Amino acid sequence: MMKTSPTAGRPAGLVETAFTVNGEQVRFELDPRESLLDVLRERLVLTGTKKGCDQGHCGACTVHIDGRRVVSCLTPAVQVAGRDVTTIEGVAAPDGTLHPLQQAFVDCDALQCGYCTPGQVMSGLACLAEGHTETDGDIREYMSGNLCRCGAYIGITAAIRRVADQTKQTEV
Amino acid sequence: MRSFAYVVPDSVAGAVDALAAAEPGTKILAGGTTLYDLMKLGVEAPPAVIDIHRLAELTEISTGEGELSFGAGAKMAEVADHPVVRRDYPALSESLWRAASQQLRNMATVGGNLLQRTRCGYFRGGAEFGCNKRDPGSGCAALEGLDRTHALLGASDACIATYPGDWAVALIAFDAELDVVGPRGERTLPLGDLHVEPGDNPVLEHTLAADELILRIRVPATPAGRGSTYHKIRDRESYAFALTSAAAAVTLDAQGTVTDCRIGLGGVATRPWRATAAERSLLGEQLTMGTARHAGEVAFADARPVRTGAFRVELGIRTVTDALLTAGKQAAR
Ligand SMILES: Cc1cc2nc3c(=O)[nH]c(=O)nc-3n(C[C@H](O)[C@H](O)[C@H](O)COP(=O)(O)OP(=O)(O)OC[C@H]3O[C@@H](n4cnc5c(N)ncnc54)[C@H](O)[C@@H]3O)c2cc1C
Ligand code: SF4
Ligand code: FES
Ligand code: FES
Description:
The complex is a heterodimer.
Chain A: E1 3-4, E2 15-21, E3 24-30, H1 36-43, E4 62-65, E5 68-71, E6 84-86, H2 100-107, H3 117-130, H4 136-142, H5 153-171
Parallel strand pairs in A: 2-6
Antiparallel strand pairs in A: 2-3, 4-5, 4-6
Helix pairs in contact in A: 2-5, 3-5
Chain B: E1 5-8, H1 12-21, E2 27-29, H2 35-40, E3 48-51, E4 61-62, E5 67-71, H3 76-80, H4 83-88, H5 90-97, H6 102-107, H7 110-114, H8 121-125, H9 167-173, E6 177-182, E7 185-190, E8 213-220, E9 228-233, E10 244-252, E11 258-266, E12 273-274, H10 276-282, H11 289-299, H12 311-331
Parallel strand pairs in B: 1-3, 2-3
Antiparallel strand pairs in B: 4-5, 5-8, 6-7, 6-8, 9-10, 10-11, 11-12
Bound molecules: flavin-adenine dinucleotide, iron/sulfur cluster and FE2/S2 (inorganic) cluster (2 copies).
């Protein structure tokens, strides 16, 4: 079976789209033009995910889809039907206790203005899960999709390094 | 953004049917990192998109006897990290992980990657700039504008836009082929026949018909794979398009003589560029700084420098030199 919206000529139709965000089921009638970033910010008012460039350059809009990091500004929201989306709002424990990586950002001075930080944390979590943390060079390479205008890169690398080392210790 | 119909076929056959029945200008949507981006900028305005990103049929990767095969829908990140590709074809893996960011590589497909469009700022910038590629006959703003990253090879008076991709540059060095399907059935073409130079019609970038879909990319197995690298020079160390790049692969005999040599150039030409004369210049030679540099000079013999990016000719020669020397070290592993 093929799912299609009305063909062009007529105004293109809305597409019913269901997915989860931070574990909660959501369902919208979406215009296929809407980006996942805009749906998160404008419809769900989850404004932790930031819009820096809206062109895939800066990484401020990074979220996870089925556990993998993507830029939500270049993700048409209709493409996430049936997927699990995780945003920065889904990272801390329900009682507000910060995730160890969030705590490490605080402890390592990994931010100044904080605008890039949600994206950095989402990207950093994925970088850790992927195992691209062998050396600081690896961390820098695999975090290069997240720009920081304030130049907090040294702290960001240190925060990820700290959590990578902690994880290694608990595994031994 | 112009509104568009969103079509989700549930098989490749369904996608082909949908494409054949679609309005002119309908586009395939894979990862969307080129197409959706350009739609947001108003540079592309398809009346409908056919979303193939969920078609599992298109995501197979195999590295069996005789060839590598990558489904067009496989993600860049997945192919970059594939252990066999990493070990036996480092140039292919490096061309992917040195491209874009991990977020984008998780989204983008290796098929869509081939058809990514130029990053020329006047093309992306919209109607206020003349651009023969976006709006035929409107002129080329780059000719008298910011041309620092524009093409040194294969340009025309109508368009000097650089083909920005990395993966196709590594693939072309390995004689990759594409299997494509359309309403008239399947056909195979060499990757070298996919992209075209701008000539007097820069709108035309490749030879696929509007109703054809790329199924997979195949790479004939070669021992030159092990002795290969993708060397990419950028304005910053990571996450930027190439100022110059070179895919190099060599095979050496026991005496260190070059018996096979492949060179692809990226970031400097209007299409993925194979430097065949440079390859020939090395056959039967020892691989030294001198012979590698000579090959680089041959590769750029026909380069036509752009006004503010002329430094990229010498940079390109050195990029080829270093790539060949690294490939030689890899071959001797
Ligand atoms: C910020 C940024 C930085 C980047 N940096 C780099 C870089 O350094 N190096 C690099 O190489 N690339 C880079 N890219 C480009 C990126 O790699 C491409 O956008 C991506 O690979 C395209 O794949 P996709 O699946 O997203 O394609 P889409 O955007 O979905 O499609 C691209 C085109 O291919 C067509 N298409 C897709 N799949 C098929 C198919 N199976 N058959 C026929 N046609 C098809 C579409 O119709 C469309 O015209 C960058 C992109 C961004 C946004
Ligand atoms: S170089 Fe090509 S893409 Fe860029 S403005 Fe000129 S015609 Fe357009
Ligand atoms: S807002 Fe998405 S990458 Fe910048
Ligand atoms: S902390 Fe300000 S942009 Fe990164």
